[in-house]
Amino acid sequence: MRINFGYVAMSTILQDCSPSKTITVKNLSRIADEKLRIIKLRSLAKTNLNNIQRLFFHNKSHDITVFRLTSKLIPLATHPIAQNWDWASELAYELKSLGDYARENKFRLSAHPEHFTLLNSPKEEILTASIKDLEYHHQIFKAMGLDSSTKLVIHVGGRYEDKDLSMERFINNHHKLPLHLKNRIILENDDKIYTSRDVLKICQELKIPMVLDIHHHWCNNYNDDIEDYLPAIFDTWKDEPIPPKIHLSSPRDQKHFRNHADNIDLLFFLDFLEKAKKVNQDFDVMIEAKNKDGALFQLMSELKDISRVKFINEASVEA
Questions:
Q1: Which helix (H) or strand (E) holds 34?
Q2: Where in the chain are the domains?
Q3: Which of 97, 108, 113, 295 has an alpha carbon within 20 to 30 A of 150's alpha carbon?
Q4: What is the DSSP letter of 297?
């Protein structure tokens, strides 16, 4: 059983390498000339894209193939203040170059749209804004030349007084999406409302992959043992050319148990690993710890002391 490890968005090791540089609408509005506004946005975006390339070099040097792109790559791309900026055309060369590098090195990329992307909202304006945000992410992937195996991870959304109706609303709204968005969306369980069982039910009905977040499951479940659901969760990926993916983080402490710790608790992961071994399915791990790649390297160091884990390279093991 092969497991590849990756991390989210930015490095805590590389210096001055944020791919999420932006500007507030208030500050951008102080630039009266629209052409100058676009020049400012373009400059920030090019810095972000350059830093993504640096992150790609960093990842390759450490055998890391699993990586999540920040949603803030193109600053204010979905805001009305930037509606006349054709960023996809202006940044086409840089985006294609990144996509070429990702494909050449067999990177598994993804994105996780912001919390305000809610497909089960009963408010039409929120649903419209959510679809606009999904289109923005798709446009980035398309400009990078990445096919539908490059996914967008989202949550079901809010409870809106009636959980069952809200789940049904998600399903109905998903049916209405254009095919290119349907093919990219995968669904994750959350830490407060929609459990692994809930999300699995939706994914099976819509025939879309499910990302299991084991920390969220620990926070929010029906006293379910994830071992009972793991074969079915992994099976939602059966029609994809890539293996299943899970999210891995650890509780910060007893009081703030929903918050992510700086690093990964080794025993927390090993407990899940024992359950996964019974399914014997290759899978990828997205580490969501605060220390990003630093947390990945620490976990790899600790796993070297576990005899039943064999290293393939710096970021992949067999168990």
A1: helix 34-61
A2: 2-318
A3: 295
A4: H
Q: CA-CA distance, 167 to 163, in Å (whole number)?
A: 6
Q: What are the tens digits of pLDDT across the range 237-258?
A: 999 999 999 999 999 988 888 9
Q: pTM higher than 0.70 for the full model?
A: yes
Q: Select from 37, 53, 152 the least CA-distant residue to 96.
A: 53
Distance CA 184, CA 238 (A): 15
Q: H or E segment at 68?
A: strand 66-69
Q: How far apart are CA 246 and CA 234, in angstroms?
A: 10
Q: In the block, which residue shows the tokens 């949550």?
A: 155
Q: Domain 2-318 adopts which CATH fold?
A: TIM Barrel (3.20.20)
Q: Are the C-beta atoms of 69 and 110 separated by less than 8 Å?
A: yes
Residue 62's φ and ψ, nearest 5 degrees, are -115, 15
CA 8 to CA 42: how far, in whole Å? Answer: 24
User: Residue 231: what are its φ and ψ, rounded to 5°?
Assistant: -60, -40
- What is the pLDDT, as a whole number, of residue 60? 98
Contact 217, 189 (CB under 8 A): yes
Q: How far is CA 95 from the centre of its chain?
A: 19
Beta strands at 151-155 and 66-69: parallel, antiparallel or unpaired = unpaired
Helix (H, G, I), strand (E, B) or coil at 38: helix
Tokens of 276: 């996964």
d(CA 29, CA 311): 52
Give residue for tokens 């009972």.
228
The Cα 65–Cα 315 span in angstroms is: 8
Q: What is the pLDDT of residues 177-222, one digit of tens each?
A: 999 999 999 999 999 999 999 999 999 999 999 999 999 999 999 9
